[in-house]
Amino acid sequence: MWPKNSSLKVSVVDTNDTIKLVMQFLFGIIILLVILATYLKYSPKEFNEANVDKIEYVN
Fold first, then answer.
1. N or C: which end of the chain has fewer CB within 10 A?
2. What does the alpha-carbon distance between residue 8 and residue 33 come to, in Å, rounded to a whole number?
3. Which pLDDT tens digit goes with each residue over 5-58?
4. CB atoms within 10 A of CB 52
5. Backbone angles phi, psi at 40, to 5 degrees
6. Helix residue ranges, H only, the chain
7. Could you list the residue range(s) of the whole structural domain that residue 24 is in?
8. Cα angle, residue 35 at apex, residues 27 and 17 outer, rounded to 5°
9. Are 51 and 44 spatial neighbours (Cβ–Cβ below 8 Å)?
10. Which 3 state secondary structure label does DSSP give 19?
11. How far from 47 is each of 22, 42, 50, 59, CA to CA, in Å?
């Protein structure tokens, strides 16, 4: 038979592990959103004449 204290500790550990997994998942989503926002901010929205000239100079 399992003592009551050990089963209680197992349930608490499972709860802490779940909280840690949820926090890691949320932090991962936040980091992906920051990377996506940075990409959208610094990427050219459309190829206007200035961007085409820059690309031609690079090539």
1. N
2. 38
3. 555 555 555 778 889 999 999 999 999 999 999 988 877 665 555 555 565 555
4. 10
5. -70, -30
6. 4-42, 49-58
7. 4-58
8. 15
9. yes
10. helix
11. 41, 13, 8, 16
